[in-house]
Design goal:
This protein has eleven helices and ten strands. By secondary structure, the protein is α/β, with parallel strands linked by helices. An eight-stranded parallel beta barrel has the order 1-2-3-4-5-6-7-10, surrounded by six helices. A two-stranded antiparallel ribbon has the order 8-9.
Length: about 280
């Protein structure tokens, strides 16, 4: 197969034989022209707070601003579950300073009704209407009641083969399909793939209950798969973005970067740049 370098060499030789300037031949070569114009991009790119588990809020927000990311899913190590009004006000002020909005809270694990109550009250005080949660299966009827009471959306986070509860999108769908329509899932595409599923097909099948997405890439579609920079693993991101457009996905797309978590910054930047490029040209 002719590669880019051979193509350019042939263009120069051909131009010389025709009496044209080699520079003009290169300038006019189709290979140097964008094949498509940037697509209309409705997706709101965010960051899953867990990405910055080893860093304080200031470092997190500085990183997001440099990357042009404006949404953060809030984890309790940045804003405690028992935060008072003063702490919450200060948190939002700090986010605003860096042009970042906390759009959801979680993931929050809930093993008792009291923990469900605490999670919903926390979201109310923080001022968001989306909880990313992991409730025990037997608590789902109670979560359903709370969703109706608070008029919140509740997105169950998938965890692949590592945790028995909610390993993939199908499991989350089966446990919520008969409950309130505001009770659905956070489609973690990496964990979905690691459980042997196809996140693109699952988005198509379950999109009416996908309220949030954790964007990541993994090395394999088995439990052995581990986190890697976007575009280097097994996730078919062009197909994913096309499906997001097809189903008119309107939730956030939050990068959850889990490689090199004590020094993740280069990997985060590479991943954000890759995802933005895919969204612009697919």
């Amino acid at each position: 197969m002719t590669d880019r370098r051979d193509f350019l060499k042939q263009s120069i030789v051909g131009a010389a034989l025709l009496g044209a300037s080699p520079l003009m031949a290169i300038t006019n070569a189709d290979v140097l022209k964008p094949k498509t114009q940037p697509a209309t991009n409705p997706f709101q790119l965010g960051m899953a707070g867990f990405t910055f588990v080893n860093f304080d809020l200031e470092t997190t927000l500085k990183t997001l601003k440099r990357l042009g990311v404006h949404y953060l899913c809030i984890k309790d190590f940045h804003l405690p579950l028992n935060a008072n009004e003063e702490q919450i006000k200060a948190f939002h002020a700090k986010c605003a300073e860096y042009e970042v909005t906390g759009y959801a809270v979680g993931p929050i694990y809930m093993k008792t009704e009291a923990e469900v109550d605490r999670g919903f009250e926390y979201a109310r005080r923080v001022g968001v209407k989306l909880i990313v949660g992991v409730p025990n299966y037997e608590l789902l009827p109670y979560v359903d009641e709370k969703v109706k009471e608070y008029d919140f959306y509740y997105a169950i986070h998938l965890h692949g083969p590592d945790i028995k509860t909610y390993p993939d999108a199908t499991d989350a769908w089966e446990h919520t399909k008969d409950l309130d329509k505001r009770l659905g899932m956070c489609l973690d595409i990496g964990h979905d793939l690691r459980n042997g599923c196809d996140p693109v097909k699952d988005l198509k099948k379950y999109h009416t209950r996908v309220f949030d997405m954790h964007i990541k890439d993994v090395t394999d579609s088995t439990k052995a798969g581990h986190a890697i920079e976007l575009g280097r693993g097994k996730i078919d991101f062009p197909a994913l973005v096309k499906m997001m457009r097809k189903v008119n996905y309107t939730g956030k797309c939050s990068l959850e970067y889990e490689k090199d978590m004590k020094d993740p910054f280069l990997g985060i930047a590479e991943s954000i740049g890759y995802f933005k490029a895919i969204c612009d040209y697919v």
